[in-house]
């Protein structure tokens, strides 16, 4: 299994617009072979000092894939290329961590 944490920072005030495009694309991603989990997350409210906030212009996409091959196919999927083109001018940066279970 492959885990992915994609940290996305949008240009100021653009997070909701990017999330709207992502939400529209989620059904196609979830239908991909090997997709076990895929969804955006934002800062939880009221957690207190333990939390390091992402901030109002950032979110994290939490993903799980059955293999590196299915993750690679995801990146090449036509709906992902279309999503990328729609949000390109709204995104300031992204950092993607691809992880394997440690146990």
Automatic annotation (TrEMBL):
<dbReference type="Pfam" id="PF03992">
    <property type="entry name" value="ABM"/>
</dbReference>
<keyword id="KW-0503">Monooxygenase</keyword>
<dbReference type="GO" id="GO:0004497">
    <property type="term" value="F:monooxygenase activity"/>
</dbReference>
<keyword id="KW-0560">Oxidoreductase</keyword>
<protein>
    <submittedName>
        <fullName>Quinol monooxygenase</fullName>
        <ecNumber>1.-.-.-</ecNumber>
    </submittedName>
</protein>
<dbReference type="InterPro" id="IPR050744">
    <property type="entry name" value="AI-2_Isomerase_LsrG"/>
</dbReference>
<feature type="domain" description="ABM">
    <location>
        <begin position="2"/>
        <end position="99"/>
    </location>
</feature>
<dbReference type="InterPro" id="IPR007138">
    <property type="entry name" value="ABM_dom"/>
</dbReference>
